[in-house]
Amino acid sequence: MTASLHVALSAGDIARFGPDPAAAFAANLQAVRTRIAAACARCGRATDDVRLLPVTKTVPAHVLKLAYQAGISDFGENKLQEARDKQAELSDLPIRWSIIGHLQTNKVKYLVRLATEFHALDSIRLAEELNRRLDALDRNLDVFVQVNTSGEASKYGLHPDDLIAFAKRLPDYPRLRPRGLMTLAVFSGDTERVRSCFRLLRTLREEAMEVHSGLSSLSMGMSGDYEIAIEEGADVVRVGQAIFGPRPTGAELYWPGAAPA
Ligand SMILES: *Cc1c(COP(=O)(O)O)cnc(C)c1O
Q1: Per-residue pLDDT tens for 19-38?
Q2: What separation in angstroms does the CA of 167 have from each of 123, 160, 173, 213?
Q3: Cα 162 to averaged position of ligand 1 atoms, centre (Å)
Q4: Going from the N-terminus, what domains does the chain have, and what CATH number goes with each?
Q5: Which one of 58, 222, 241 would you pick to mutate in the ligand 1 pocket, going by the greatest count of ligand atoms within 8 A of its CB?
Q6: Average pLDDT over residues 195-207
Q7: pLDDT above 70 (res 4)
């Protein structure tokens, strides 16, 4: 493919992603896959059991053309506006868009047009609105129910005690295809605390599946903790920085090098 020749990289892109982002992403992807395979081997799981969902948030659309070139065609985004802008720019590529972050009800109309999967279902109101909008488009959507397993007020998701009642209501929304549960572990260097979040989600799955058999997959684990998540039963890991490099935050986004060349 020669598509890379048409992607003009700014000085900021090169500072962030290196002079050959496609090669860097491909190498990082390979390294992550190797670690996934090792984690699977440690706990007697088949490598194919774990799906890697690359998280592309903050990576600019033109750079994502190079990610596609590196063999990445599943893009996980947590902000709908950002996903919409990128999708518009990349509409000629066969990308599967997954929305993995909290969604406001007023954004549902955009989500149903672009996403194939939603990992952050966390209220009945949202389920209702998704179902209504999907019905109008005659579409279905794969969904994961987000659970707050860390007890942190800053995290979205259902309280674990509310999951079963929620799962019982899912059949009221036939356009939603429940696929599993999703969580974010506590952000901590204490791996036992991280592990206990993942373990809780796995325990909750046992109960949830008795109510709704579709809730069978666990979407858990990100760059810092996906190997622990796999050991605790993750079926989908959502990995951004380990593939695309560290994300600039706040003012770093506007460092001088980021200006167009
Ligand atoms: C950003 C994000 C991830 C990936 O985080 P990394 O540290 O980039 O791997 C996973 N899940 C959600 C919900 C996210 O917003």
Answers
A1: 999 999 999 999 999 999 99
A2: 11, 11, 11, 10
A3: 24
A4: 18-247 (3.20.20.10)
A5: 222
A6: 98
A7: no
- Whether 42 has a pLDDT exceeding 50, the answer reads yes
- At 77 the pLDDT is 97
Mean per-residue pLDDT over the chain, rounded: 93
The whole-angstrom separation of Cα 61 and Cα 133 is 27
The pLDDT, as a whole number, for residue 5 is 53
Residue 74 Cα to ligand 1 middle (Å):
14
Q: Characterise 205 by phi-psi region: left (phi > 0), alpha (psi -120 to 50), beta (else).
A: alpha
End-to-end CA distance of the chain: 25
The closest-lying atom of ligand 1 relative to the alpha carbon of residue 182 is: 13
> Distance (Å, rounded) from C-alpha 26 to C-alpha 17?
12
237 in ligand 1 pocket by Cβ < 6 Å? no
Residue among 199, 206, 203, 140 at smallest CA distance from 170? 140
Nearest atom in ligand 1 to the alpha carbon of residue 240 is 8
Distance, CA 56 to ligand 1 centroid (Å)? 9
